[in-house]
């Protein structure tokens, strides 16, 4: 069923688990993700990153078939615009049919972030579209630009932000970074940030950059109040590894078989994270 994030995250918030949000950029990855969720009877969020949609295939070609997959699914599926940096692009995405959008104005000043987010919430409310926002900043593994402590979310600012906006969920920074973590590296999380914001808001909170953060970190973050966990790099790496293996075994493998071989590894990785999140059998 095609839904917004609102009810699924409210339920996760009440019952203290998280819903997985998987970054997909093509039909194959979305199909594998939804299939994994159906097998575990779990709600799922398909995250379509604004940057991917601009660099790969435009949203007007990718979004409609993914929405059809969501409508035909046996579990609740939200299709969310991830890290919408442009207010105009986010507005268009609401009109184009996304059931959820992330207005990421975290690079703006605090007051500008509130103003921009409220404008998006006002439009989204007319279409039943949920809105995610972000306070704090996220680093990236690429170029060793990991998230530093001075980029962490200020709990007081986060609480004020949620009091002054009507967002569905808030992404916060407390130690994770975007990208594939180096081998044997596990980031250090500041769980007190989650606890303080949850105590002051009692609303759904989001962990971005979940790939490679480790089982203990993710499960403790959920215990402290995280209700949405974003993962992309680990699933895409599973697919990339599958391509490499297939090419090593048969350099002349047909492209359609090459792509089909990526579906099962993607599904298995998604299922691993669904089980970590505690959302197995939580679908309506």
Automatic annotation (TrEMBL):
TM segment ranges: none
CDD domains: TBP_aldolase_IIB
Cofactor entry: Zn(2+)
Protein origin, superkingdom: Bacteria
One Pfam short name: F_bP_aldolase
Name of the featured protein: Ketose-bisphosphate aldolase
Taxonomic source organism: Companilactobacillus huachuanensis
Organism classification: Bacteria, Bacillati, Bacillota, Bacilli, Lactobacillales
């Amino acid at each position: 069923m095609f839904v917004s994030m609102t009810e699924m995250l409210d339920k996760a918030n009440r019952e203290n688990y998280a819903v997985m949000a998987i970054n997909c950029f093509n039909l194959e990855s979305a199909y594998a993700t939804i299939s994994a969720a159906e097998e575990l009877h779990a709600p799922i969020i398909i995250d379509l990153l604004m940057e991917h949609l601009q660099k790969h295939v435009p949203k007007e070609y990718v979004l409609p078939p993914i929405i059809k997959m969501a409508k035909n699914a046996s579990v609740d599926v939200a299709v969310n615009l991830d890290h919408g940096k442009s207010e105009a692009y986010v507005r268009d995405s609401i009109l184009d049919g996304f059931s959820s959008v992330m207005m990421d104005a975290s690079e703006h000043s605090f007051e500008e972030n509130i103003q921009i987010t409220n404008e998006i919430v006002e439009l989204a409310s007319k279409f039943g579209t949920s809105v995610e926002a972000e306070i704090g900043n996220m680093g990236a593994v690429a170029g060793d630009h990991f998230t530093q402590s001075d980029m962490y979310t200020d709990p007081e600012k986060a609480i004020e932000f949620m009091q002054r906006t009507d967002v569905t969920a808030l992404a916060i920074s407390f130690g994770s970074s975007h990208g594939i973590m180096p081998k044997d590296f596990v980031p250090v999380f500041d769980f007190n940030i989650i606890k303080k914001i949850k105590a002051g808001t009692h609303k759904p909170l989001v962990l971005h950059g979940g790939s490679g953060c480790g089982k203990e970190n993710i499960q403790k973050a959920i215990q402290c109040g995280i209700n949405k966990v974003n993962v992309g790099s680990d699933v895409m790496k599973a697919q990339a590894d599958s391509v490499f293996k297939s090419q090593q075994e048969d350099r002349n493998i047909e492209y359609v078989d090459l792509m089909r071989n990526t579906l099962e590894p993607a599904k298995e990785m998604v299922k691993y994270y669904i089980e970590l999140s505690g959302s197995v059998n939580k679908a309506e």
